[in-house]
Design goal:
- There is one protein chain.
- With about 300 residues, the protein is mainly alpha-helical.
- The chain is about 65% helix and about 5% strand.
- It has a five-stranded parallel beta sheet.
- Helix 15 links the parallel strand 4 and strand 5.
- Helix 2 runs antiparallel to helix 3 and helix 6 crosses helix 8.
- It is elongated.
Length: about 300
């Protein structure tokens, strides 16, 4: 542990830049706690507080810019990737979509302080067509506020931080083990939340692309419902012809108006069709039983050669 602290003292500014850059790129590294510690060391005169702040802001912009460009060039494919690797699949993407559409560039300020949403906001801004000038301006301010808050916290709590560092240096491997347990506990908690969500949606009935296509080809007129968020549809405007556009939050309020004598086929474009499966569960709780989630979602429908509109 003492070696780690010596590394921070010897290469603090470089370490802050690399860890912050990796964290903004999506790596699960503790950038915020590192900035607090760096702020405490700056108060002791060991590091330059201004240098720490500058490199942290630059790392924020550089990391976010990578995802911004990816969002511009790949659109919904990038959002689907982030949704897939997130510990909270789909929810973080929906929240980011809502923030960007409602607040525009100002959403980048709020997103910095929202775990999960912070990584998704930059590619969503790119996918929705935000200009480079607007993105850099808002991301600079957001990075400055985020970095400054944690560095300032370190400056204010410098005495306590130094005591903690001294304690950790003396504790050695015990301290490392304790930190590892804390991180493992946080990951397990998020994993359990994901498992609980999966159990709720697992019971939702599903229908394959072939079955849904057969219903359509036989003229049985199934009702397709696109349950993607508005931001997701803006990034990827493709949809099944004639589909109703209802976001997940609108499903319950529209349940009474949906036909009961036809098959309802709900689709999204997220891993394991989680949003569509959740919507099916919501409809079942409202008494609508002829609803199923489309396995493979919109991408599966397109991949099977079926017609789409808005392409």
């Amino acid at each position: 542990m003492r070696s780690l602290i010596e590394l921070l003292v010897a290469h603090g500014v470089l370490l802050v830049f690399l860890v912050t850059l990796a964290a903004r790129a999506g790596a699960p590294l503790p950038a915020a706690p590192l900035l607090v510690v760096a702020g405490g060391l700056a108060a002791e005169g060991t590091l330059s507080g201004w240098a720490v702040l500058v490199v942290a802001v630059l790392a924020n912009i550089a990391g976010d810019a990578v995802w911004f460009v990816a969002g511009q060039r790949q659109g919904h494919r990038v959002m689907k990737l982030l949704c897939r690797i997130s510990l909270s699949p789909d929810a973080c993407v929906r929240q980011s979509e809502g923030l960007i559409l409602r607040w525009g560039g100002r959403a980048l300020l709020a997103a910095k302080f929202l775990p999960g949403v912070s990584v998704v906001a930059a590619p969503m801004a790119g996918a929705l067509g935000m200009s480079w000038r607007r993105f850099i301006a808002y991301d600079f301010v957001a990075g400055l506020l985020w970095s400054g808050a944690f560095v300032l916290l370190g400056l204010m709590l410098s005495d306590q931080i130094q005591q903690v560092l001294d304690m950790l240096a003396g504790a050695g491997y015990v301290a490392l083990a304790a930190l590892a347990l804390i991180v493992a506990g946080l990951i397990l908690r998020r994993w359990w939340q994901r498992r609980r969500f999966a159990r709720r949606t697992r019971g939702g009935r599903r229908i394959s692309i072939a079955e849904a296509a057969a219903l359509q080809d036989r003229g049985e007129a199934p009702v397709f419902i696109d349950v993607r968020a508005a931001g997701g549809r803006a990034v990827d405007p493709r949809h099944i012809p004639g589909a109703l556009l209802l976001e997940i939050d609108q499903i319950k309020s529209h349940a009474a108006s949906l036909p009961r004598d036809r098959e309802l086929i709900l689709y999204c474009n997220c891993p394991n069709e989680v949003t569509a499966a959740l919507a099916v569960t919501v409809l079942a709780e409202a008494g609508v039983t002829r609803a199923r989630a489309l396995v493979g979602g919109l991408d599966g429908w397109v991949g099977a050669g079926r017609a789409v509109a808005g392409a």
